[in-house]
Amino acid sequence: MSSSRPHEGDPIAPYRRRLLGLAYRMLGSRSDAEDVVQDAWLRFADAHDVRNTEAFLVTIVTRLCLDRLKSAKAQREIYVGPWLPEPVFDTDDLSSEAATELADDLSFALLLALDRLSPQERAAFLLHDIFEVPFSEIAAMIGRSEPACRQLATRARRAVRDERPAPAAAPDSHEDLLKAFLEAVASGDLSRLTGLLRDDAVAVTDGGGRKSAALNPIHGADKIARFFIGVAGKNADRDIRIEPAVINGSIGALLYLDGELDHTLSVSIDGDKIAAIYLVRNPDKLRYAPQPASP
What we know:
Blueprint: H1 16-27, H2 30-46, H3 53-77, H4 108-115, H5 119-130, H6 135-142, H7 146-163, H8 171-187, H9 190-196, E1 197-206, E2 218-219, H10 221-234, E3 240-247, E4 250-257, E5 260-270, E6 273-280
Parallel strand pairs: 1-6
Antiparallel strand pairs: 1-2, 3-4, 4-5, 5-6
Helix pairs in contact: 1-2, 1-3, 2-3, 3-6, 4-7, 5-6, 5-7, 6-7, 8-9, 8-10, 9-10
């Protein structure tokens, strides 16, 4: 890590993407990540004799995230319906600036796998496997011994490997499948829609109690197909507009009802089938969505 103190105009500018990337992966929320980085900046501004600016900031961000995850656990217990990460549309701002296997992966599938880890497992795994921080430094950041941090990362790595789907599909294949899915929903073609889905596919909808959504994940191709066609039918008399968008690094869609953004839709692909669908309706999670293009 660099040890030089940055210029005074924006002292953390050289590290901001890395810090935001770490905080977002830890918390699954761009809004919370922004707050954490701002808090870290304030603590840095009040600190004296900081010998290694980047190490100091990464340590503060990690600890602030661990604190937030404690309160998030209680909040999740009263969260209405399934929880999904807050979708992001500009992944360049969340770069780990590393060359690791998972460095550029911000998929919902990976973030949900991370969410099932304990906070310290998540921290040890992210810091080492994605941000290339040595275990000796991680130990000081999270207050555990170096061997314990290695064990935390090993357990996390195994869990992520077991839950993470097959490698991402090629962009063209991903886009083609998503387009076919949207066309089948719009046309009400149940047979075609079912055929696009893996038999054991899952659909997760997040309304957060702010908007209606399925209160449990929907499992199975037939149930998912019927659900989406049913929703489309209920909105058939409304002005529906769908725009493509890059969501968490892969092509997805923004769906507008009567000119207002209603939800984001992302899919996870396995081979030539859709393995998972993620639909975010909670308006609290859509504040960073791009503005619609002019008709």
